[in-house]
Specification:
Keywords: FAD, Flavoprotein, Oxidoreductase
Number of strands: 25
Structural class: alpha/beta
Number of domains: 2
Shape: globular
GO molecular function: NAD(P)H dehydrogenase (quinone) activity
CATH superfamily of the largest domain: FAD/NAD(P)-binding domain
Helix content: 25-40%
Domain FAD/NAD(P)-binding: 3-280
Cofactor: FAD
Strand content: 25-35%
CATH topology of the largest domain: FAD/NAD(P)-binding domain
Largest sheet: 5 strands, parallel
Bound molecules: flavin-adenine dinucleotide
Oligomer: single chain
Distance between the termini: 18 Å
Protein name: Pyridine nucleotide-disulfide oxidoreductase
């Protein structure tokens, strides 16, 4: 019986654990380690912060019954065991590294901002928004998809607040026509756009930019993401941004018993350069990572990961949305959909993420531009 420890129970970790348990039933023993007993639907954290039903559900109800759950954080990963912050340790034959991402905190005064990238930040923002009087200024920093969704959601739930979005650009990765439509939709929703500005510091009462100060009673940080430093602290090979480096099959370089999945992992560019940090990439990475572990347990050659992206599904409050189709390499395609129909599609996408983790054997994904091929066996397994 091979002991597999999955560190992190987000989209990638839960998919990997359930697929391993479902497919490898008789020859694997799976334990998931996660700091809290809940699954956090991160893709709904902007809804959560704005006061929608909470975006958490018990992990025990999502994990297959034969998967063990250990509520703790991993402190250090050694050759065949992982040390936990509750004083315990777990020995493993294979480890799946799935610790995800959180907000990058480099900005001067970031302690004055509410972070939307993790549950604690979203909880605290939820409380803060409820305390604000009508017309209070709220500034969202960051014009990526999280900033756009957060601004629109807060405007939808709190129409009396004075909401602004500040960023150098808003929806930068989208074609000009899609960008213009999103700008118009945000303006319609009552969000004032301040584009072409660089935020230089955050204060308790405002946001400094290179174009002047914006008053704010509640600043929401929707800037870049960073990854936990667990791999770095454990002496594992990492990219410059701290993501675990793997081969084509998602096996950690030089550590053949560790497989990496999700936001916290950097596969080689020819299979992974187009995989932006997203739930869209984390789920198939989790499934492929599970297949790689099963192949190694059975003495077979794992295959290279091959994932095609499909597009961006953006919620704009509860009644509007925008879908931008993409080619498999994540470059935008011609098709876009907006309005109520797009909001419905986005909601279905969110629900599908949970369903797919419940039915991991049936889960399929679009292959990438590079086909999946067997990866040569390692020279020496550790
Ligand atoms: C507001 C918002 C909206 C988003 N919307 C979308 C969207 O529409 N579409 C999309 O594709 N993506 C979206 N994303 C991005 C998406 O949520 C992430 O890319 C996705 O969650 C990554 O999945 P993951 O499994 O790699 O990591 P996560 O979901 O972050 O899970 C990682 C898990 O590991 C745990 N962990 C961390 N450190 C340790 C440790 N030391 N020991 C044990 N466990 C640990 C964490 O607590 C967490 O449970 C959104 C993100 C945000 C914040």
């Amino acid at each position: 019986m091979a002991r597999v420890v999955v560190v992190g129970a987000g989209y990638a970790g839960v998919m990997a654990a359930n697929r391993l348990a479902a497919v490898g039933r008789s020859d694997v023993d799976v334990t998931v380690v996660n700091p809290r007993p809940d699954f956090v639907e991160r893709i709904r954290l902007h809804e959560h912060a704005a006061g929608a039903p909470r975006a958490i559900r018990p992990l025990r109800g999502l994990l297959r019954p034969d998967v063990r759950l250990r509520v703790a954080a991993a402190d250090a990963i050694a050759e065949r065991s992982v040390r936990l912050d509750d004083g315990g340790a777990l020995d493993f034959d294979y480890l799946l590294y799935a610790v995800g991402s959180t907000a990058a905190r480099g900005m001067t005064g970031s302690e004055h901002a509410w972070n939307i990238a993790d549950l604690d930040g979203a909880e605290s923002l939820r409380t803060r928004l409820r305390q604000l009087p009508a017309q209070a200024p709220v500034v969202i920093v960051g014009g990526g998809l999280t900033g756009i969704e957060s601004a629109a959601e807060i405007a939808y739930r709190y129409p009396s607040l004075d909401i602004a979005l500040v960023s150098r650009s808003v929806a930068a990765g989208l074609p000009a026509s899609s960008r213009a439509r999103i700008h118009a939709k945000l303006a319609n929703a009552g969000v004032a756009l301040h584009t072409g500005l660089r935020v230089t510091a955050i204060h308790a009462s405002g946001v400094d930019t290179d174009g002047g100060r914006l008053p704010s009673d509640c600043t929401v940080w929707a800037g870049p993401l960073a990854v936990p430093d667990l791999a770095l602290r454990s002496g594992l090979p990492v990219a410059t941004d701290g993501r675990l480096r793997t081969d084509d099959a998602l096996v950690c370089l030089h550590h053949r018993r560790i497989v990496g999945v999700g936001d916290a992992v950097a596969p080689p560019a020819h299979v992974g350069a187009h995989l932006r940090m997203s739930c869209q990439a984390a789920l198939p990475m989790g499934a492929h990572g599970a297949d790689t572990v099963l192949a190694m347990i059975r003495g077979q050659q794992p295959t290279s990961v091959s994932i095609g992206m499909t597009g961006q599904a953006i919620s704009l409050g509860r009644r509007d949305g925008f879908i931008q189709a993409a080619h498999r390499d994540d470059t935008p395609a011609a098709f876009a959909l907006s309005g109520r129909a797009a909001a419905v599609v986005k909601e279905r996408v969110c629900r599908f993420t949970v369903t797919s983790m419940r039915f991991p054997r049936a889960y399929r994904w679009l292959p990438g531009a590079t086909p999946s091929v067997p990866v040569p066996p390692p020279v020496a397994a550790r």
